[in-house]
Amino acid sequence: MTHTTTPPPPFPFPGPAFDFPSSERQLEDLLATPSPALVSDAARLDGDLVVLGAGGKMGPSLARLARRALDAAGRTDLAVHAVSRWSDRAAADALAADGVRPVTADLLDGDPGALPEAGNVVFMVGAKFGSAGNPAHAWAVNAALPDRIARRYRDARIAAFSTGNVYPLVDTASAGSAETDPVGPVGEYAMSCLGRERVLGYHAAVHDTRVALLRLNYAVDLRYGVLADIAASVQAGEPVDVTTGHVNVVWQGYANEVALRALLHAHEDVFTVNLTGPETASVRRLAGLFAAEFGSPGGAAVTTGTESGTALLSDASHCHALFGYPPVSLRTLVGWQAEWLRRGLPLSGRPTKFQTRDGRF
Asked: How far apart are alpha carbons 219 and 253 in whole angstroms?
């Protein structure tokens, strides 16, 4: 069944802290702008930084952000190594021009001993889409590879991206899963990500490796993410499925910054933090806001389905207490996302599939 939704009032959040980034270059520049808090933390790092999986959606901006933060802190003595297969050589060359050192390596089948020495590691490697059809590959990447990396960097600080998918679906009236709540992964992808956490926890317990786990859902940066998925459907006049009726999202620049700052919180007892925005956002409400942004007749969005009483939601209040709130509010991101699409600026073409409820990606 499809029906229309009247536009909701705006989210009660302040206006933008930054100007709209009107090109990919400006977007990358904004994503790579360190906060004073990150610069202060960067000054305390002890050793070079290796970013593993730096060729993904978030990796280039994280590596560039780290380089700028270290430079601003006066730590030009520390290198930032960005490790990937680098099928996109232009991305590697762009990082090199910004002072980051690209390293070409096959992490799954290559020799981990050939990776650069480092006192700090951000682990961003993951296999999600296609995991339902090839679960063995998902387990190799998400659970077996972390063992190889933890052995290579036993004495380093490791901040590893995990996912909120390690939690079960929870009541949408709740505040979301907290770090102390029981896990309950649904599907092979989520289970293999919990495997990553358990393997790194093993190395923390047995080898005193300092580990921080970042349970992220969902990062957005205008070229991809939940907001881009919803906005593109609304702009095209396609119905938005509201069965998964509530989501968490967070500005990618904040997610990258938390990952870097979490290095100083990594310890052998395993530091775990939920990484997302402060609000539970209604998919129906977001669709209505985009409809209003695009001037839909009557300011209405076309939706399909009925909201379920459960969703994948995380309580990130611990993260916000430690690292502050995201500097770009949800309402600002909605406006930016609409403007990005109005101008015909590029999208990644990789949907989040946030609507998935059975864990099959």
From this structure: 9
In a domain, residue 77? The reply is: yes
Q: Is the pTM of this model over 0.70?
A: yes
Q: Is residue 332 part of a domain?
A: no
Over range 11-21, report the average pLDDT: 60
Contact between 231 and 290 (Cβ < 8 Å): yes
Q: Percent of the chain, pLDDT > 70?
A: 94
| Average pLDDT of the segment spanning 39-52 | 97
Answer for the pair 241, 280: CB distance below 8 angstroms, yes or no: no
- Nearest residue to 107 (alpha-carbon basis) of 32, 56, 47, 164: 56
DSSP state of 224: S
Which residues fall within 8 angstroms of residue 349, CB to CB, at 6 or more apart? none
Is the model's pLDDT at 299 over the cut of 50? yes
Range of the domain at 101: 22-220+250-277+315-326
In a domain, 303, yes or no: no
Range with lowest mean pLDDT among 44-53, 118-127, 189-198, 347-356: 347-356
In this structure, is residue 102 part of a structural domain? yes
DSSP, residue by residue, 122-161: EE-----TTTTT-HHHHHIIIIIHHHHHHHHTTTSEEEEE
- CATH code, 207: 3.40.50.720
The beta strands (E) that lie in the chain are given as 2-5, 49-52, 80-84, 101-104, 120-123, 157-163, 170-171, 210-216, 219-220, 240-241, 246-247, 250-251, 271-275, 281-282, 301-304, 310-311
Q: What is the dihedral of CA 316, 317, 322, 326, to 10 degrees?
A: 70
CA separation for the pair 34, 65 (Å, rounded) = 6
When the pLDDT of each residue in the chain is averaged and rounded to a whole number, the result is 93
